[in-house]
């Protein structure tokens, strides 16, 4: 329960789905096929979300009644919000708070999702050394909070300082982040919903990170993290070729892969001045294609394979999200053509 006078949302679930994921006018020909945007990222019904600096977590004395547990956050606009939570949620929050030891440069953030009945639906507690205004700006640009949090945690986890600095510098580029966090990965193919490009980019990076962990004794930390960064950035050229609804004028003429190094020109220049070998390796991994033959770094094939797997997983989610477990096949429309998927 939230102790704040907030109006309940009046939109129905259908209205939420339609407004959040507008469908391109020519998206599919077969109306019996579930539109992609309505199935890939399910939205919580009638929920409100709040982000702020974590406040006090406290409980009432509990006598003669049961204790009541509260958590609070303070938005950057100065509004303090209190939420009544159950004992299990309160204990989980307190436990994570204890595990997140803060440095002097870090702040503790709390994000909550609240149902229409003011019941706490979901929460995330995280720390960051980024400026408060930057966190708020990224939050306002992001289509899906979970995706933004995954991005921040991936970057926070880099151990090589020049790589972390490179990745964090991208977060300060407002125009780049506004696009990267909001546009789809494609118009009528995989991850074709607002925010899909970042979802896809993170999936590829996380798959590559997992695969590299299997051979961590045979590859340096620096090469590992450059490869993960290349996986994250492999489609960043699309920020110049797509909007939420259509292709840009440039995107109708120039392939996104030819724009990747242009988008990254300034941070690559700074990286080269600090670590030339790392900058060259990052450029090579981002631009390498299977048609060029054997990749000189072990991560090249990993990135391509993860890219394909993320794409196919997207289509699989699209095809089976509305199907019961006993359905072994599904059909989706990709670029106006039928694609058939199987599972067992």
What does it look like?
It is a single chain. The protein has helices spanning 13-20, 87-99, 132-141, 145-156, 161-171, 174-180, 196-213, 221-233, 260-263, 265-274, 276-287, 299-320, and strands at 48-54, 58-59, 69-74, 80-85, 107-114, 120-128, 329-334, 337-342. It has a domain at 144-342: Hypothetical protein af1432, CATH 1.10.3210. Strand 3 and strand 4 (80-85) form a beta hairpin. The chain is globular, with a radius of gyration of 22 Å. It starts with 12 loop residues before the first helix and ends with a strand. The model is unreliable at 4-38 (pLDDT under 50). The chain is of the alpha+beta class and 344 residues long. Residues 182-240 form the Uncharacterised domain. InterPro entries: HD/PDEase_dom (IPR003607), HDIG_dom (IPR006675), Unchr_helicase_relaxase_TraI (IPR011119). It holds the Pfam family TraI_2.
Radius of gyration of CA atoms, rounded to a whole number = 22 Å
Q: Shape from CA axes?
A: globular
Give the % helix: 40-55%
Low-confidence stretches: 4-38
Q: How many alpha or pi helices?
A: 12
Mean pLDDT: 85
Task: Report the major sheet.
Answer: 6 strands, antiparallel
CATH architecture label of the domain at 144-342: Orthogonal Bundle
Structural class: alpha+beta
How far is the first residue's CA from the last residue's CA?
Answer: 42 Å
Q: How many individual β-strands? A: 8
Which percent range describes the beta-strand content? Answer: 5-15%
Q: Oligomerization state of this entry? A: single chain
**CATH class membership of the domain at 144-342:** Mainly Alpha
SSE pattern, N- to C-terminal: HEEEEHEEHHHHHHHHHHEE
Pfam family, one: TraI_2
Domain Uncharacterised: 182-240
InterPro entries: HD/PDEase_dom (IPR003607), HDIG_dom (IPR006675), Unchr_helicase_relaxase_TraI (IPR011119)
